[in-house]
Specification:
767 residues; Ribosomal Protein L25, Chain P; Asn/Gln_amidotransferase; binds magnesium ion; 7-stranded mixed beta sheet; alpha/beta; 24 helices; aminoacyl-trna synthetase; ligase; binds adenosine-5'-triphosphate; Rossmann fold; Glutamyl-tRNA Synthetase, domain 3
Length: 767
């Protein structure tokens, strides 16, 4: 497919290919492949690799095969192979051919016999343990096998017997004869074939009793298919000499396939290895491979994320030669960016409380003509512009949008306060009812009837809230998703399962406006003020309305860890009884539980409260940080996650970070002078070096750059370097905005504030 230019790969690999094409290395030909092992469901890392291989080859008019690396019969199956193939097509690519390493087993075997004849391979009859023990170490040479000088005729005979299943597993292997003293351990007579006599291969059945190892299969497959650029992840760089050695040994002449490596994609707060993902499924942490919280293609599809967003994310994350970790916020940005101009806005109330408009009669309905789209969005051509929204005496509003005792700066409904019911009218709260437990059961208000359908411009209201008229509302279930892990780098923990976020799924019952009833089931909506949603494709099938949150409107995690903005209401501490599937306090003693509860009520996160309750030294640092002006919740997160991570094995007593400096770090975040992502390195620096927060920020060069002077060079360069895209943008192709954001971010200084950058870019483009 012709990829839109805002998600086309643009990186060092493209440069390498461009040079080869220009130099006519392969007569200008480009051929790549995506080579998954069908041993699990595809994940975001595979998506990155698919985008890279298919995207790059496509840019050069080349070909790209999907090749299953099906050399390990014990863990592979058809179901996984189908899921991988589906993922390629879902992402928008069509393989030139779908092929299997097993297609080449005959050819590989013939080549192996050839190597034996040439004295370049031999059958070793030691066990794999013995072979391993004799490989030596990085500093010591290995020892030659006693079978290394076996006569080629004998090796050939044994190899043929191995192939026919006449020898048990582990009795022999075929090895390449290279150099047991080679500084690169991969070159010390590597294994080419091992016996798996009883394994059933999902394609070749029991035809083969021996199976090739990855290194022996991969380059040979590339050569057979005429691959030009064979891209793999960084950890294979030590395998490259072996890749080339095999090609030399079987006599493939230049120009031939070459291996290039890039850093695998890691994303904050998630895990990506198939093995770990399987554990989440098998332990029941998630509902399956397609659970919307999973970083799998199946999970993304079920959640309502579109392939456009994943491709865009892949291009924003980019391709690098060094391992790193990509912010989850970038993925969320790509998803929002994709949905923004295709998702009609509607209103839904996820946690309802009744509001009675006393000066409307029961049975009276006013039907408003409400816009589906905000002014700054260009909707799809054929999309309807408005929908009818009924307003009546009783409406549902969000429980969190009312406070009986509002804190200073409250921007929603409260006694005697006025708010605008979005698209509707201004209402003034005249009273409310509670039940015995003090829970609000009903709110009363009067409407200013002059304000119907007129935006209350210039009128002093507290804020605007969303709502749904009760009588005509449709009941719906809302599934709100949060990140699956509460730790930014679960992979780095001893046991990643300890970092599972118990609140990653919250299910609510509420109401949605009736207009959605007539829409196609796969419509992606923006629920105003809440987030992007669509109907769960499976659980809505029966006619129930079950909505999955695709992405929230803002980065909720950043908001949670940031000091509360002055106008934000103070978060109600969550009742402890509401503890999710796993209670973090379950391991605490009676006394610790009390401390835990006290901390939780003060607003500290439950996970963090449990850690602090059990650790007096850490709690004392937390208390001093709060005493130095930090918010409770933020200080809890900082001490429990960032400080502990910075400590590693160091005792807390040796840490040089002062509570004042820690509090000041949080203040910098609140002041937008530091991004939340930069907090980890700053805390690390404070812990090991001491000093003040601004000093640390300065030393690490992490100041947030949000001013025009700091960002302008990147913006100007992004526009100047892409005149063609700029012209197309000016000609009305406004979806290129995301492309320019990506281009500018790539050129921007460390710490660049993406929001400020977007705002400036918008100005520059006159958008
Ligand atoms: P896993 O650890 O999940 O099993 P893998 O690398 O073994 O990953 P394969 O199915 O063998 O997975 O890989 C298929 C292709 O996808 C390979 O080319 C591999 O380099 C690429 N790939 C896998 N994970 C990532 C990742 N996180 N980032 C980029 N590419 C990846
Ligand atoms: Mg693997």
């Amino acid at each position: 497919m012709a990829d839109s230019s805002d998600s086309r790969p643009d990186n060092f690999l493209r440069d390498i290919i461009a040079r080869d094409v220009e130099a006519g290395t392969h007569a200008g030909r480009v051929a790549m492949r995506f080579p998954p092992e069908p041993n699990g469901y595809p994940h975001l890392g595979h998506a990155q690799s698919i985008w890279l291989n298919f995207g790059l080859s496509g840019q050069f008019g080349g070909k790209c095969n999907l090749r299953f690396d099906d050399t390990n019969p014990e863990t592979e199956n058809e179901e996984f192979a189908r899921a991988l193939e589906d993922a390629v097509r879902w992402l928008g690519y069509e393989p030139t051919a779908v092929v299997y390493a097993s297609d080449y087993f005959d050819q590989m075997y013939a080549w192996a016999q050839d190597l034996v004849r040439k004295g370049l391979a031999y059958v070793d009859s030691q066990s794999e343990d013995e072979i391993r023990a004799m490989r030596g170490t990085v500093t010591e040479a290995g020892t030659n096998s006693p079978f290394r000088d076996r006569a080629p005729e004998e090796s050939l005979r044994l190899l043929e017997e191995m192939r026919r299943g006449e020898h048990p597993d582990g009795s022999h292997v075929l090895r390449a004869k290279i150099d047991m003293a080679h500084p690169n351990m991969k070159m010390r007579d590597p294994l080419m074939y091992r016996i798996r006599r009883d394994a059933h291969h999902y394609r070749t059945g029991t035809d083969w009793a021996i199976y090739p190892l990855y290194d022996w299969a991969h380059g040979q497959g590339d050569a057979i298919e005429g691959i030009t650029h064979s891209v793999c992840t960084l950890e294979f760089d030590v395998n490259r000499p072996l890749y080339d050695w095999y090609l030399d040994a079987i006599g493939i002449p230049e120009p031939r396939n070459h291996q290039y490596e890039f850093a695998r994609l890691n994303v904050e707060a998630t895990v990506m290895s198939k093995r770990k993902l399987r554990r989440l499924v098998e332990d029941g942490v998630v509902a399956g491979w397609d659970d919307p919280r999973m970083p799998t293609i199946a999970g993304f599809r079920r959640r309502g994320i579109r392939p456009e967003a994943i491709r865009h994310f892949a291009s924003l994350a980019g391709v690098s030669k060094v391992n790193g970790r990509t912010d989850l916020a970038l993925l969320e940005h790509a998803i929002r960016d994709d949905l923004n101009s295709i998702a009609p806005r509607v209103m839904a109330v996820t946690d309802p409380v009744r509001l009675v408009i006393e000066n409307m009669a029961s049975g009276e309905t006013k039907t408003l003509d409400a816009p589906y789209w905000p002014d700054d969005v260009t909707p799809p051509e054929a999309a309807p512009k408005t929908r009818p929204v009924p307003l009546a005496r009783e409406v549902w509003i969000e429980r969190a949008d009312f406070s009986a005792d509002p804190p200073k700066g409250w921007r929603r409904l409260a006694p005697d306060a006025e708010v605008w019911l979005r698209h509707g009218c201004v209402v003034k709260c005249t009273g409310f009812e509670t039940d015995d437990a003090g829970e609000i059961t009903e709110i009363r208000a009067t409407a200013d009837l002059d304000t119907f359908e007129n935006d209350p411009v210039g009128r002093k209201v507290r804020g605007a809230i969303h709502w749904v008229a009760a009588e005509t509302a449709l009941p719906a279930t809302f599934r709100l998703y949060d990140r699956l892990f509460s730790h930014p780098a679960p992979d780095e923990l001893e046991d990643f399962m300890t970092a599972v976020n118990p609140d990653s799924l919250v299910t609510r019952k509420g109401w949605i406006e009736p207009s959605v009833a007539g829409d196609p089931a796969d419509t992606r909506y923006q629920f105003e003020r809440t987030g992007f949603f669509w109907q769960d494709p499976e659980d809505s099938a029966s006619g129930d309305l079950v909505f999955n949150q695709i992405v929230s409107l803002k980065d909720g995690w950043a908001r949670k860890t940031k000091a509360p903005a002055p106008e934000a209401p103070k978060a109600e501490p969550k009742p402890l009884a509401e503890a999710g599937p796993r209670d973090p306090a379950s391991a605490l003693s009676e006394a610790e539980r009390e401390t835990y509860s006290a901390l939780a009520v003060r607003g500290v996160g439950r996970e963090e409260a449990a850690v602090l309750a059990a650790d007096n030294a850490l709690r004392s640092l937390f208390e001093s940080t709060v005493a130095s002006g930090a918010g409770e919740k933020e200080a809890g997160t900082l001490v429990v996650h960032d400080v502990r991570r910075a400590l590693g094995d160091m005792p807390l007593a040796d840490a040089k970070a002062s509570p004042e400096a820690l509090a000041a770090t949080l203040q910098l975040v609140a002041d937008n002078a530091l991004t939340r992502n930069a907090v980890g390195p700053v805390v690390s620096h404070l812990v090991s070096e001491g000093g003040s927060a601004p000093e640390a920020v300065e030393k690490l060069g992490l100041s947030a750059v949000s001013d025009e002077a700091g960002l302008a060079p990147a913006l100007d360069a992004a526009l100047a370097d892409n005149p063609e895209e700029l012209a197309r943008y000016r000609a009305g192709e406004t979806k290129l905005f995301g492309f320019f954001v990506g281009q500018a971010m790539r050129r921007a200084p460390k710490g660049a504030d993406p929001k400020a950058l977007q705002a400036l870019l918008r100005q520059r483009l006159g958008a």
